[in-house]
Amino acid sequence: MKIINPFNGERLDRSGDYLVDSLDNSYPIVRGVPRLVGGDNYAENFGLQWNKFAKTQLDRDRLDISKQRFFAETHWDRECLNDKHILEVGSGAGRFSKVVLEHTQGILWSVDYSDAVTANYTNNRAIAADRFHLFQASIYELPFEDNSFDKTFCFGVLQHTPDFEASVKTLIAKTKPGGEIIVDFYPIKGWWTKIHAKYILRPIIKRLTHTRLMALIEANIDWLIKVHLGLHRIGLGLLTRFLPIVDIKGTIPKSLSSAELREWAVLDTFDMFSPEYDNPQRIAAVILMFERHGAQVTFAGFESFDGASAAVVRGVKRR
Ligand SMILES: C[S@@+](CC[C@H](N)C(=O)[O-])C[C@H]1O[C@@H](n2cnc3c(N)ncnc32)[C@H](O)[C@@H]1O
Question: What is the pTM of this model?
């Protein structure tokens, strides 16, 4: 795989602790990861969250939700991934990087815009160092040439980018003709989607610093969990959308201990309120984006795993 400087297209090679091009532009390799961008950008909240909760959502022992979700959404046959080049955009702490590295023999090229790459590198470098290549870079400035990847996936990311369609376009551009692109995203299910504590409180919460928001969530999470579960118990689950807490019933695995559930709830509530961008999409709109940018849609709808579900679009890049 040729690594390029996304800002001028020149080839990048390693020289000591830097990636350098022939014009002497250089990018540092910090804590094992080449950094094409600095940490001070709109995704800084994700750097904070994924380094604080670096291991919370990683599969382990009885917890295999990431593996379930990954294979439910991709339908990939593990054997067919042997030696294939796979692009992952927006890897966070690396829950899906880990699945790819542990359950396939694919070669993974993974990026995230934030310092979450530090957590991902720490979590996953030892699994298969020769098949794991990680960069801090933006989806809009990826260090790869077009038509480079056999498979591309992007989970939980697109709604948090400033231009959803431009992001889809990039994913398709980087994939080889005949290669597959799979995305999941927050869906707009109807007029009621935005009648939700997340969107109602957004203007107020945007004024808080991320550290203050995290502290507020940690101070209030216990009663919020109790009220959330209580409303479900008495058949008033519909009202939980007005509580400023993540949808525990719909998104958090059933097999967690109460301490683990608390940790997931803090993480996912912060994840719900802190992003700069939150642009849910209609599935039909994402189908059109795929078609407009050269991919034929092979599936669009909801995929289920462990009692939860996600809006997924899969497509193949036209030859
Ligand atoms: C909700 S997290 C999902 C992380 C991971 N895919 C998961 O499901 O655990 C969204 C991630 O997208 C990354 N992200 C946001 N904008 C990005 C961009 N322009 N380029 C690459 N990554 C981006 C964030 O830094 C963050 O780690």
Answer: 0.96
